[in-house]
Amino acid sequence: MTISSYERLKKDTKALFETPTAAALRNSLYNQKSNLAYEKCITNLSLYSQFSQLPGYLERKLNKHKNILEKLKEESPNANTKDDLGLPIIDGNQALVTRSTTTKSSALSKLQKNQILYKDRRSEDIFANDLIVPKLHKSNQKVTQHMKWKMFRVLMGHTGQVTALAFDPQNKYFVTGSSDRTIKIWNLASGQLQLTLTGHIMAVRGLVVSDRHPYMFSCSEDKSVKCWDLEKNKVVRDYHGHLSSVYTIDIHPTLDLIVTGGRDSSVKVWDIRTKLPVYTLTGHKNTVNKVYCRSTDPQIISCSMDSTVKTWDLVAGKCDKTLTYHSKSVRSFCCDETREEFISGSADGLKKFNLPSCEYLQEVDGLPHDQLNQGNLILNSNCCNNDGIMFVGADNGQYGFWDWESGTVFEQGTTIPVPGSLNSEKGILCSSFDRSGIRLVTGNVDKSVRVWKPVNE
Q1: Could you give the CA distance from residue 351 to residue 135 in angstroms, rounded to a whole number?
Q2: What is the spatial distance between Cα 425 and Cα 242, in angstroms, rounded to a whole number?
Q3: What does the UniProt keyword field contain (predicted)?
């Protein structure tokens, strides 16, 4: 070290430690260093946007009023695409992977062959097995313009939560089931209550009206499944065999079979005429939330609280495929028969699959939700029509309308509970489009039945 260098170092040391403003200078340097380190740490984490915010006092200090990822993207759009370890840097929207000639790792070499896509600011582990974490394929088709949907009628009549509904094949009326143990029949055009059926001793959880018979089938928490003659308005058959509450029911479109599922984790196939179970399909590890019947394979699809969706071979009477793409309870799914696809809904999001191979296609946009403060967003029901529109209703009253092809939301909102109800009673429990697809009916926690229709704005 030269004399001049030593003298300059001595001078700097004296200015730093012996001047009256030394304390203020040290604090300024310390705060600046800690702020930059904290900012860099937060920026490098692959988290949701609500976690990528600096604390309020630090935002004011650094004069930052927007998301860190967006700020850095504006400031350095052509920044280096590798971090200090030589690994690709991942931002909030897309993973940029550059080809490296110096990296000899086989994992990185495989990674560099493909571009990894991200959706909704959600990043996958870049070293994950493709079989465990499938790639997200975004649809390249343009979003179809749809009309806005507005609620135009609220029907009151039930004294309990509305838990099930179904439509008449001629689209003249629809039926609703409730925790008040009754089934009500409503005129679709006028909204007038036509009939109230009693027979169950606990909440009615599932309803379906036959296309080929003058029958309606219902299932309940009283473990029973009933067949109603709609010409005589009374029960003509009972199906006994479930060991606990029955939560879902559907009728086969071409065969004289009904399929039920419930809390005993089994899916039962019944012969309508003999009242005997043809099959008891086992495989689910928890409550079966919904079953759906098709005329072609897979003829039976079910979802469960064990986070799986299963397809069943009706001829062999056993499980065909098990889809394990969800990590939380799958409460509902809906099938678009014209496109041969279905979308399943869970607290971890909406996922689209094709039929009959049940291949994973894409992850559908979700509703905005603060999971950190409000917990999981429970999706109770989703349904679709032939115009490429899907409706989803949640436990906290949130709802949304999706464009099926692109998987994007074109309308969303939150229901308002009817006067006299609690704010916590705005959840949507069931939903269905009518046979024409131009009316939507939802059943709610606040005991109301709401009818929606598209409007021109």
Answers
A1: 12
A2: 30
A3: mRNA processing, mRNA splicing, Nucleus, Repeat, Spliceosome, WD repeat
Cis peptide before 356 (omega within 30 of 0): yes
Last residue of a domain, one of 92, 113, 136: 136
What confidence tens digit (pLDDT) does each residue in 57-74 have?
565 555 544 444 455 445
Evaluate if residue 175 carries a pLDDT over 80: yes
Tens-place pLDDT, residues 255-311: 999 999 999 999 999 999 988 899 999 999 999 999 999 999 899 999 999 999 999
The CB-side HSE value for 54 (13 A sphere, CA atoms) comes to: 25
Task: Give the separation between CA 52 and CA 45, rounded to whole angstroms.
Answer: 8
CA–CA gap between residue 207 and residue 177 (Å, rounded): 7
In a domain, residue 247? The reply is yes
Beta bridge partners of 293: 300
In a domain, 191, yes or no: yes
Q: Domain of 402: which CATH number? A: 2.130.10.10
Question: For helices 68-75 and 22-44, what crossing angle results, to 10°?
Answer: 100
Within a domain: residue 372? yes
**Tokens (6 digits) for 187:** 């005129």
Q: Domain containing 116: what range? A: 80-136
What total number of domains does the chain contain?
3
